Amino acid sequence: MKPKKNPKKDLNKKSSLFFVFGLLLVLGLAFIALEWKSYEPKSIYEVSMNVAPSEIEEEPIEKFKVEQPKIKQVLPPEIKVEDNDVEIEETEILSTEADTETEILEVDDIEVDEPEEEVHVNWITIEEVPIFPGCENAKDKRACFNEMMQKHIQKNFRYPELAQEMGIQGRVSTQFEIKSDGSIGTIQKRGPHKVLEEEAIRILSKLPKMTPGQQRGTPVKVSFSIPINFVLQ
């Protein structure tokens, strides 16, 4: 039996070449499809405004007239010339330099005024204690002074709200001066917290003016110490 295929014709001999050509063709078409660009036709009107340029009405431009500011003319003050007929007394300046006619003073003739230093006496050693208003006729003025001080503290005492919220309590040691004119001088304080110290200063600053204490018949400055207790109930 004679075979149908020609053994000299090999169909698979150029199949790889055809495969490469087909692959290149497919890749070229894919590249052209990806890189293909299309453009919209140019419009003669603005799309965002949705009107043609011919339909846009131009608004008239208003012109404003700018007026120049009026400058107020300020005239110089009128200078009045008066006749100078007033006689001026000239002050004679004496020379401080010494000359042959200068009088020489002796050392004994020169008096030097020394400023008097204010005497500061303690409350315990003072001869006559300061008198608190209302204690003028009291027999024991020291006891009356202490009693009036306690009444003054109770009357003006006010527990600070911040100290109450924070639970701060304790004793504030204070010392103040009663000056030689009866007014309250420097107030010193020491306590557990600044809030309590400020309240103690406020109480003592409300003290009235007193009759000053005396030492050997002369008004002197007297220091007085008193503690102020802050206790939460």
Summarize the structure.
The chain has 233 residues and is an alpha+beta fold. The chain is built from 4 helices and 6 strands.
Main beta sheet: 4 strands, mixed
Number of strands: 6
Percent helix: 10-25%
CATH-defined architecture of the domain at 120-230: 2-Layer Sandwich
Shape: elongated
Write a structural description:
This protein has 233 residues and is of the alpha+beta class. It has four helices and six strands. A hairpin with a 5-residue loop joins β2 (170-178) and β3 (184-190). It has a domain at 120-230: TolA/TonB C-terminal domain. The strands form two sheets. It has a four-stranded mixed sheet with strand order 1-6-2-3, with helices on one face. The longest helix has 21 residues, at 15-35. The protein has helices at 15-35, 141-156, 161-166, 194-205; strands at residues 120-122, 170-178, 184-190, 214-215, 218-219, 221-230. Residues 144-233 form the TonB C-terminal domain. Belongs to the TonB family. Keywords: Cell inner membrane, Cell membrane, Membrane, Protein transport, Transmembrane, Transmembrane helix, Transport. One of its GO terms (molecular function) is energy transducer activity. Pfam families: TonB_C (PF03544).
